[in-house]
Structures are given as C-alpha cells and as structure tokens.
Amino acid sequence: MNESQPSATPPPIPPTINSALPLGEHPDDRLPITGPVTAVEALLRQPRRMLFQLRQSGAAKIIAGLLLVAVLCAAVYGLVVGSFAGGAQYWIAPVKIVGGMVVAALICLPSLYIFSCLAGSQARLAEVFGLVVGLLVLTTILLIGFAPVAWVFSQSTNSITAMGFLHLAFWAVATFFGWRFLKNGFAHLSAQSMGALYVWICIFVLVCLQMTTALRPIIGTSEDFFPKEKKFFLAHWFEVLEQRPAQPASATQR
Amino acid sequence: MTTPSQALPPLALGQIPTLLRGEPGPIQLWIGDWRASRVLFYAAVTVAGTAAFGLVLGAWRDPMQGVYTAIKFPLIVLLTALGNGLLNGMLAPLLGTNISFRQSLLAVLMSFTIAAAVLGACAPLIYFAIWNAPKFSGALAGTALTIHSVIYLGLVAAMAVAGLAGNVRLLQLLRRISGNEGAARRTLFAWLAGNLFLGSQLAWMARPFVGAPHLPVEFLRPNALEGNFYESFWQHLQQIFQ
Fold it and tell me: pTM for the complete prediction?
C-alpha cells in the first residue's frame, strides 16, 4: 500500500455538544484543567469544560492562572499600543491597559453578582469572578491575535485618531466573544432572565470606554502620567476628532 | 425537608443572595421565625449598603458631605421602615394578607435589605463616574450645577432600580403568604404608598445628600422644613434640559 496516498475516508468530525445539556453530563466537561495553557485552550474550544471546572472546588487556582494570562496578554497588547509613540509609552501603555482592565472588572464585579442573584442565578461570588476573568482572558487573547495587525498600522500611520479607532474596533470584537462566554456561563447558572446581564454588559462597556479617557494618554504621549482634566469619553472623542491630524500637538492627551 | 438556605443561621451572609433571588421557601420560613439577631443583621446590611452609596454620592461636593450622607441615608431608610411598621402591620390583614406586625416589619426590612445590597453594589460604579467628573470648584458655577443635577438624577435612577428590585421580591413573598394575587398587590401598593410618603418627606428634611454647589457643606439645611421632594426633582430636570 502506498503510504503517500491519502486515506479514502476523512477523520470524523467531533460531534457538537448540545448546549442545553447540563454541565458535567458530557464526559468532555469533566476533563481536568491542569494549567493556564489548558485553561486558555478550554476557553477557546470547550467553554463548557471551563464553566464546569469553575464550579468545582479547585476553581481558585484556575481563576488565578487565568487572571495571570489576562494580565500578560493585556501587557503584551499594551506594548503594541505603546509602539505607536515609542519611548516611555512602551511601559506606560501596558501599565495603563492592565491597570484599567483590572480596575474596570473590579468596579463592575459587585453589580454583576447582585444582578445575577436578582436574575435567580445560583452562582457564588467566586464563580461570577471566574466568569468575569474568563471574559477578560478571551478578550485579551483575541487582542493578542489582533496585535500583529495593530503593530503594522502603528508603524505605518501618524494618525492617533485612526489608531484609536482601530484599537477600539479590535477591543469591541474581542469583548463580543468574551461577552458570549459570560452569557453561556449564566445560562448554566439557573438564571431565569438575561435582562440584567444585558444591562450589566452595557455598564461594563461604558466603564471600559470611560477608563480609556480617564487614563489618557495611552496611544499618544504626555508629560503627565494621568490627565489633569476630567472628561466624559464622548466629549474627549469629539475633541480629538475636531483636531487636525497634521498638527503634532494632537499627539498628546490621547 | 430543610434546604441549605433554610438552615442558614440568622447572621449568615448567605441569606443575602437568597433574598436577592427571592427564594420563597427559606424567606417564608425566616419571616415566620422571628429572631432579633436576624432583624439586626438585615438592619446592618441595610446600613452598610446605603452608607456606602451615600458616601460616594456626597464625595463629589466634599468628602465631609460624603460622611454626612453616609450617616443620613441609612437613618432615613431605617426610620421609614420603623415609622410605618405599625401602619403596615395594620394594613396587611385589612387588605387580605394575614401576617403579624413583626412579620410585616421583617418583610419590609427584607425588601430594604435587597434595595441596600443593590445600592451598595452600584456604589463603585457611581464613585467611578463621580471620580471622572470635573472636581468641584466655585469658579465652574455652570458646570458644577450641571454635574450636581446629573448626580442627583443618578441617585434617583439608582434608587428606582433598587426599590423596584426590593418590591418585586416583596410582592412575590406577599403573594405566597396571602395565596391571593389581588391581596398581595393591594398590600404592596399600600405599603409602597406609605413608605414613599414618609420616606420622601424624611429625605427632604435630611437634605443635602449630593450637596448643592452654591450652598455650604452641612449636615442639615437651616430651612430643612421648607419645600418638597417633587418640586426639587422638577427643578433639576429643568437645569439639565434648559
């Protein structure tokens, strides 16, 4: 038999698991998660496995590992963001992105827990925290996927507005997938209504967007680490849009 | 058979998620089993949640205003529950919900505990919003007035959401106790009307909470007994949309 000849029958496609099946009913759900790499793989390929493991007694280790992954990924993406301006932004951008992400999640965590309880969910605070960390990991992992594209644009354009828009677009796509994980998680936590979760994701997105303005400049440069003037993010965006891109001064306070 | 929630001791934090979820079995059991420690625990959670919310509300005007609001806000909530306790206890059986004075007081306190938990959870979000607002300055009179109005409306919105959550759960409980949808709705409506009437007046007397930019920071206004809540709310709406 010629070994180079392809087999007549292709390997079978793994069957998709019915999402309505309770967690732990499928044997794949019970596969242990041994480290951060397995955890990331489970988040991407087998979210049910991650959701099941988050309800087990050893979930704290998994959550801590995931949080570390989220912080590392956010820091790496921060390096790419900082590469636009270079210099001090190489460390300022990662610090601000990581800090902003963690603070935004912590600010929104109590409301998510209370909303989930109001929706009838049986989730414990630790489980809710695990779901939020899962959201962060999926978001930042996807941002790492976008990082080469973002880097190419960073090196080839001088427009802060264009870069800001690009990073926001990447973040929006990544957050959508993170949100989908969170939603799936709540569907398995006996939540009777998803309304509160929809309200929460709006709050979370608003907090994150405001955080980008509160911690500006992230893409451009400034003499100050934090801005002196407080602004609402929409007001800041309109101001940036009104500035002429050719002006070098527009590279500040971003 | 006793569920884990029903077996919770009176001081267990685990009661709060059960209250938020509105699990009828354990809540009805707790209402029937009057214990001073449970009442104190609910009062403590109510104080903690409303004090945290009050602290961030007043923080924009002045840190001292935040402390004042953190003291006054829980007082208003508890005084409303206590002040209407007798009336609520009498109205419930008259309207078809056969519960005792103690049970009605505990039911109202439970709904306030739920509302306080929601307000406490919103406190970090409100603080983040206030932290992002321009700092209070007498020089920015127009901006300061607008921010004050936005915070004031935020306060009303947060309280509306928290109140709604508390009362939806209270309605479910009353429905279960009375076994009659109409009686439960009548009782809730009567309790709500009484609490709103007393609570809004107490709140008006205890102003300021956010702290008007053109007035000094103080625990109570010298004219505490003038005007009313609805008149002030209308003025703030006009300030924003003018």
Answer: 0.78
